[in-house]
Amino acid sequence: MEQKIKVCIFGPTGYTGGVLISALIKHPFVKIASLVSSSHKGKTFGEVFAPFRNSSLAEFILTDSPSESFDVAFLCTPHEVSLDLVPKLIASGVRVIDLSGAYRLKDPSLYPEFYGFSHSFPDLLEMSVYGLSELFRRELKAAKLVANPGCYPTATLLALAPLLNLIDSEPIIVDALSGISGAGRTPKQSFHFPEIYSNAFAYSVLWHRHRPEIELIAKSLSGREINLRFTPQVIPISRGMMVKVYLRLNLQNPFELFKDFYKNEPFVKVISRPPEISEVIDTNICVIYPFFDEKTRITQVIAVIDNLGKGASLQAVQNMNIMFNIEETTSLELPGRFI
Amino acid sequence: MEQKIKVCIFGPTGYTGGVLISALIKHPFVKIASLVSSSHKGKTFGEVFAPFRNSSLAEFILTDSPSESFDVAFLCTPHEVSLDLVPKLIASGVRVIDLSGAYRLKDPSLYPEFYGFSHSFPDLLEMSVYGLSELFRRELKAAKLVANPGCYPTATLLALAPLLNLIDSEPIIVDALSGISGAGRTPKQSFHFPEIYSNAFAYSVLWHRHRPEIELIAKSLSGREINLRFTPQVIPISRGMMVKVYLRLNLQNPFELFKDFYKNEPFVKVISRPPEISEVIDTNICVIYPFFDEKTRITQVIAVIDNLGKGASLQAVQNMNIMFNIEETTSLELPGRFI
Amino acid sequence: MEQKIKVCIFGPTGYTGGVLISALIKHPFVKIASLVSSSHKGKTFGEVFAPFRNSSLAEFILTDSPSESFDVAFLCTPHEVSLDLVPKLIASGVRVIDLSGAYRLKDPSLYPEFYGFSHSFPDLLEMSVYGLSELFRRELKAAKLVANPGCYPTATLLALAPLLNLIDSEPIIVDALSGISGAGRTPKQSFHFPEIYSNAFAYSVLWHRHRPEIELIAKSLSGREINLRFTPQVIPISRGMMVKVYLRLNLQNPFELFKDFYKNEPFVKVISRPPEISEVIDTNICVIYPFFDEKTRITQVIAVIDNLGKGASLQAVQNMNIMFNIEETTSLELPGRFI
Amino acid sequence: MEQKIKVCIFGPTGYTGGVLISALIKHPFVKIASLVSSSHKGKTFGEVFAPFRNSSLAEFILTDSPSESFDVAFLCTPHEVSLDLVPKLIASGVRVIDLSGAYRLKDPSLYPEFYGFSHSFPDLLEMSVYGLSELFRRELKAAKLVANPGCYPTATLLALAPLLNLIDSEPIIVDALSGISGAGRTPKQSFHFPEIYSNAFAYSVLWHRHRPEIELIAKSLSGREINLRFTPQVIPISRGMMVKVYLRLNLQNPFELFKDFYKNEPFVKVISRPPEISEVIDTNICVIYPFFDEKTRITQVIAVIDNLGKGASLQAVQNMNIMFNIEETTSLELPGRFI
Lengths: 339, 339, 339, 339
Fold this sequence. Notes:
4 copies of one chain form a homotetramer. The first copy, chain A, is α/β, with parallel strands linked by helices.
């Protein structure tokens, strides 16, 4: 590339911001133009995040509005902040990758129930492209506004995609484990070290905003009504996610089907043994194990991702690479975390 | 009681042995007569287990055969060792509570596949009482040989029992999380601290010996063929277990059904929110959350236990209390682990 | 005892309150009369603390003032709250065990620097007995107001006590590790699970309020000025503390000296190998390893305690037992946490 | 560089091997020629290490001798294996970086006591260069055999180096914390997850082979006899190390001294607050906090490193860069682990 892509990051001081910046620092075609944070305005990035104290951005000053022009904005902001920020950014002519849920649910009527606000920008919602790179690559190339997927939806939809044409009307069971970083960087009683380090629990079992996200995207891909029984759980690890999908689908060899479906994908690995969460930490990779249980005639898929990697910030970088016509794996060729 | 029950523990130096002894030390009607361990013969118990270095058993000498007569033997030995030990003990007239799987599967033909040995004592297998206290209390009172249940079966069967009469022929999905202590005290590569502390994985997804154990007991209780899709997983906690059961069962109010079913049980709590694993550590309690999802018409049950508590050693004490006609909660009135 | 001791606990919803109550529930001579908590007034204790949901106090209602008369108050309240509460309680004729630091520093002039407030009750400060049971047992018997020691001071002073007569004017180096529960139950950024679970750090290295506490008590015992270089650190465990004391003291056999000094103490174990933190969790025991390094001629002492056990709440129970002339080990005969 | 450096790694399947390979994979001037492992001969690297299953080396076949010629060998082998391997490699004309302790102690008479073998190659020992990059950079440029330092010595010597000219004959106290990976990848009872995850302990307090390593190097730098009181401890983290050094040294402003001493060093950061272990994980950086305590007149230094980074494998890469006249930071510009 002749010229670097100038990037502005809104909300850089949370976990998704941090992982995003870790990848962008090393990206050969990116220049970080601004880090926008109203709450930490005036501080250096190194002050806010210990691991960045020794990085090239240690002395970078956070500002409360962009300090110079830019080509693309990454929004690591709360849903409500993204909701209002997107229209302004789009109006100013820049492209936007929003990591919040503000532009993910194509049906605006779901926002009051699942996000607690009415969606005021249905046109932008309509225009947004869902950033699950492997499934919407073509649309992403020209996208102005990308709604980067949630972590549970990323793993679940990649586990479901090859099967969507085969699915009937039965409900699909999705049982999912997430690391604590999925709950964000703000301290909470439940995630205070002594309370969680020997604990695990299910939450929002009848109401989690990632359920309609998965159902709507699955429906848009399959043309069928999809119904999930979705049980998210937290376990005491910092990063990582494991999703188990159970379907009543008489499919003798799901492995070959998956292998073929993802044969050209650099970030999806199909394997024939249960994956470990540790295989994917610090990567943009989703490892999938599909299998069929003769005895119960259930088709099951186990998928693991790094909730902050493929489940958030690294997929956002993959999407940027697609949007700007850069080799898709740029800055994402990570060997993964070695212990 | 006039006289204390004399107890001999075989295999006291593993995790089930340790938890068992922790409870028996405090039991007002028990005298620990012998600790039998061929591998640690001649050592003191305190030498073998750091937490017991300061206990009343610190100087207790391990022997390779019982050092005095006893009324009941607890077997915390490997399956193969229990297999051969039980006939001798029964022949000698003592009662036996076996924590291994050697006498759990009423169908001896399953042993070669699931335990790697042919069962040489079908009569004793026939005679053994399955030690899930709440479900087999009557049989336990007079039992000579108790096959103490596995951890996954304990939680799963307590979660299923109130529903067994309502179940049709559909497979039941059981997705279960276990702490690492379930894998025993012998060091293994997978459970070496640096490899597991940020990790989680499913294992034995198509073949786990607890699956037929659950299926056989459920069948014996319901009279119906029961078919499980069983996915055990390990998460990086030391103790604790969470089981999630999914059934296609149109049951509007499972909460009331469960409340009623367990209304007199001191160790089963039925609640109306997702339980936390931390609620039950160091206790003999199973906390159960049954609910119905209108949208998918699936009945779901989430149950948590301490895999070494209700899932193993404390249930063994509960069974001993039943067998010896002692108040069932004796030495099990634990407030639970406070962080 | 003919009549039970009626106990009122102020501030029962933090970690020290929780561990205290765990022990008092089992205490044969105690009746918990009131749990006073202004912030949780009207809630049940089980609502506030998951591990107590299944205990006998699950339905106990928290009140904002004592709901009935009592003999002794335990204060698990912040320093400032204890400061003002103690005079009122003493005036009302009850005995008080204060787990805060409000009445620990006999020199009131230190309070502004180390606690941020002027001490308004120097007479009560004068009257208070420092609750390090092994060192002040005689004074504790008749004490009206007990200032229960801090966790670092408990372990450090037990490690120093046998040496105090031998110490010259050289500074003593105290390097100490604490579990996260020492920082309390209120969520903090530093102790949010993802930030601390792979981390450790020193803090307050030049200013920690436990330093003058140790120095003053050591001086009162030895008659000499004691000067500490004190470096507290947090490590990612929930409970537990390890203190290492380094002295330039030419003492060939500290083991015998310590053995003799603590020969009648049920809660102090002197050993000849490095202790493990896991040996003492859930106990009131301090394990001490004193040794002499010929090469450097340094005498070193390593001591471990449970920071919430001997370092706080269980020592408070020990003190109550002493004050009320009960067998000192009552309700403290814990086998310790087995993994 | 015109031609890539061809590298052979002996013992690639342990933790030091893994971290080394993670860095070498990304190194622009390195070609990994062979991975030599007798125990895993014939397997692919991905089979042996889960995190490498998705890397470019996933299918690389391990061999029991080098599969092609090479310029430099990294030895991640046990001490005894390195001892015998080094002479053969040196004789064959390649350069060697040995991560074991086999060639670190210039005084061969120490080997029987601290390593359990007599050193059979005193000439090579004499010839070896101690690979603490910042202190022996000049010698490293032409080194044929580099004895890569131990983790404790790296952190301790970097913390001591600026003070060595000021030190008198008093013993120096070194109190150090290490993550579990320092004990290697082979499973051990002490580091089985349930035994260590809530534990910490000191070990080898009177005998640790890193003590003479530090003393000898410090003596070679200062010309004075150096005497350490060295207390290594393990804490339940996977990676990371914190060393605290205590000296009786009347030095009012150690910060400026350290700042100046390390002013041109890219991998040593001198700061004026206690460092966190999390600042340096996955980096080659040592963060040092030197300070003076007026009250006790003790100079103290706190240093943190990644025991597998600067403490082992990344320093080995730094040394290779120096030896081959490559920009020293090549492949080591890591932003560090973000949670």
